[in-house]
Each structure stands twice: as C-alpha cells, then as structure tokens.
UniProtKB/TrEMBL annotation:
One GO BP: L-histidine biosynthetic process
Family designation: Belongs to the class-II pyridoxal-phosphate-dependent aminotransferase family. Histidinol-phosphate aminotransferase subfamily.
InterPro entries given in the database record: Aminotransferase_I/II_large (IPR004839), HisP_aminotrans (IPR005861), HistidinolP_aminotransfase (IPR050106), PyrdxlP-dep_Trfase (IPR015424), PyrdxlP-dep_Trfase_major (IPR015421), PyrdxlP-dep_Trfase_small (IPR015422)
Protein name: Histidinol-phosphate aminotransferase
Entry keyword Zinc: no
EC numbers, comma separated: 2.6.1.9
Species per Swiss-Prot/TrEMBL record: Oceanispirochaeta crateris
Catalytic reaction equation(s): L-histidinol phosphate + 2-oxoglutarate = 3-(imidazol-4-yl)-2-oxopropyl phosphate + L-glutamate
Listed Pfam families: Aminotran_1_2
Modified residue annotations for N6-(pyridoxal phosphate)lysine: 213
Length: 351
C-alpha cells in the first residue's frame, strides 16, 4: 500500500510524555481545572446527546459576535484551533504552494501545510521573536499562508499591535496571515493588541483563538477563527457537517462569560509569574518575559535529560529539543505549590 506523496514528510504527533500521578505542567493547560460555568452547562445538555449538534455552532457564534462586536459571519468554530489550521490549509493551499512560519513555534502549522502538500518554510526566530522582516523577504508569488503565534509558543514573546499592522500593510493580497492568539487572553503588556481589532481592516487576516487554555477546556476540543466574511464563509466548504460536538458548543458559550473563573486564572498566572521570575533571577537563569501562561527557560543542559530527571521526581515539563532549542524547557505556570516544587527541582539540578 502506498501513502500519498505529501504524507511521506509527516510523522504522527507525539504528545508530551508523562506518567500516572505526575504533576503535568507540559501542555499549558489550566491548573484550576475547567470553567465551572462550562461544567454546569454540560450537565444540563447531557439529555440532548441523542441529537446532532448545530453544524454552524450558531448559539456560540452569536455569543462570540456579541463579545467581539463583529458580525456572526466573521466566525467559524472548529474542533480545537488545530482543526481550524487544517481547514484553512484545506481551503486555500494548492499543492506545491508555500507556507511561511517560524522554526521555533507551534508544530500544527507545519502539519497543516504538509497535510495539503504545501512547502513549509521555517524562518528562524530572532532573539526569540518572529522575524517579520525575514518572513516578508521570503514571500513569493507561490506563497499562500503565513502562520504567526501571538504570543508565541514556546517562547511567550509577542509582536506589538503596530508591528502586526505594518506587517499586514506590507503583505501582498494573495497571502493570508493566520494570527494564532491561543494565549492572547493572558497578555497584559500595554503594547499587546489583539488582531481581532484588525479583522475588518485586512481581508487577508484570520485570527484564531481557543477554549483550551484560559477556559480550561482542552479535553473538549473547541476553538474558533475570526476574519472577513469572504474568508470564513469559504472555509465552511472544507468543514465536516458536524465538526464540533454538542457539549463543546454549549460549554464554550458559557465559559466565554465565566468572568470569575477567568479572573482567578489570570490572578494565579500573574502571581505565579512574579514568584517564578524572582526565583529564576536569583539563580541567574535566562528566560523570555512571557505574555502567556508558561515560561521558556534556558536550562543550560540537555532538555531531554532534565525532562527525564523531573519526571522521575513527579513533574512533567516540556523539553524544547523538538522546537530546535536543545537546552531550553517550557514550564506551564501552575499553582503556587507546583511552582515552588518546580523551583526546588531546578535548584536540585545544580547541586
Ligand atoms: C495550545 C495551543 C493551541 C490550541 O490548540 P487547540 O487545538 O485549540 O487545543 C493553538 N495554538 C497554540 C500556539 C497553542 O499552544
């Protein structure tokens, strides 16, 4: 049996390794659990599981439209933002066309490009930041998609809104920018601005968000994109009829307005960051100031060995060798107790 030529470059995703009982701080999940409002909505909806879900996620889209003050036609909902990236590639990318992204960033952009036979060009980060000049210079007539994560995973760095705007101004009309804002809810820097404010100014911009991180719903699989209706409505062509399940749709609509939970999550993250920065500074570790719910730290040792060592002691973190950052790790900010344990493990590395 022969597989498609394009798939020969694709290897199945390998999830972060962990072990039963270990504290998992390797996938940027919410350490406070799922949104309680979402859980309540799921309980209410269980009796309706005999019904197919709304294929257009209409109720959720109305809630999103209210939230962002955009028309409902600007939205599309997916089975996680991962599905949205693949839908975007499936809608716009012709085999052999180019996809531009960074070397040290989320691997799903590469996957989506390869899945549809794209040629993926990875531009090196510059000092941990997307190098927008080098990305623009790499664009050709054959470029179809550009993927930027803002804030970036795994570095936690961000591009300012005016940088995104000037990038878009210089981007040729035939190229779509996919701006992945999976962590935007965590960003507090005054120069951070969401791409959702730019959606109606640039008909070649798609902004994606997820319920997996701040809302604590990674296991349900739900994310969404916002763009000019002429873009989103085309993406519907590539979408399966019932891509997002009933429970995910109703949970997400409630989670969006679970302000108490969102605030608690943000407080935990900012207090954790403060504690971790102080501890890392004291021990002279280099890290990128993060606008997300994780910190990217230069450990100065083989990250896979550090990973094994920490896992033996009951904590899973993310080694960044697969991101081309051999001696870096990514730590998801946890509870105060978990953060203290992490710092204790770090100290033990130097003993
Ligand atoms: C976690 C993450 C996502 C979320 O993906 P889902 O499929 O919505 O769970 C998207 N982009 C980045 C950069 C992420 O780290």
């Amino acid at each position: 049996m022969k597989i498609r030529k394009t798939l020969r470059n694709v290897t199945p995703y390998i999830a972060g390794k962990t072990k039963p009982g270990a504290i998992k701080l390797s996938s940027n999940e919410n350490p406070l659990g799922p949104s309680p409002k979402a859980l309540n909505a799921i309980q209410q909806e269980l009796n309706h599981l005999n019904r197919y879900p709304d294929g257009r996620s209409g109720t959720l889209i109305s809630a999103l439209a209210d939230h962002y003050k955009l028309a409902p036609e600007c939205f599309i909902v997916g089975n996680g933002s991962d599905e949205i990236f693949a839908l975007i590639a499936g809608t716009f990318l012709e085999e052999g066309q180019e996809v531009i992204t960074a070397d040290s960033t989320f691997s799903e952009y590469n996957f989506s490009g390869l899945l549809f036979g794209g040629h993926v060009i990875k531009i090196a980060l510059r000092d941990g930041f997307f190098d927008t000049e080098a990305m623009l210079a790499a664009i050709t007539d054959e470029t179809c998609l550009v993927f930027i994560a803002n804030p970036n995973n795994p570095t936690g760095t961000f591009l300012k809104q005016n940088e995104i705007r000037s990038f878009l101004k210089r981007l040729p009309n035939h190229v779509i920018l996919v701006l992945d804002e999976a962590y935007a809810e965590f960003a507090t820097h005054e120069d951070f601005g969401s791409g959702c404010d730019l959606v109606m100014d640039f008909p070649n911009l798609i902004v994606t968000r997820t319920f997996s991180k701040i809302y604590g719903l990674a296991g349900l699989r739900i994310g969404y994109a916002m763009a000019y209706p002429s873009l989103t409505q085309e993406i519907f062509r590539a979408k399966q009829a019932f891509n997002v399940n009933l429970l995910a749709q109703c949970a997400a609509a409630e989670a969006l307005n679970d302000h108490d939970f969102i605030q608690k999550t943000l407080n935990l993250c900012s207090e954790g960051k403060k504690y971790l920065y102080e501890a890392l500074d004291r021990d002279n570790y280099f890290y990128y100031p993060s606008e997300a719910n994780f910190i990217c730290i230069r450990i100065g040792k083989d990250s896979k060995e550090v990973f094994d060592d920490f896992l033996d002691q009951g904590m899973a973190i993310r080694p960044l060798a697969s991101f081309g950052m051999e001696d870096w790790i990514r730590y998801t900010i946890g509870t105060q107790e978990q953060n203290e344990e992490f710092i204790r493990l770090l100290k033990s590395l130097r003993e």
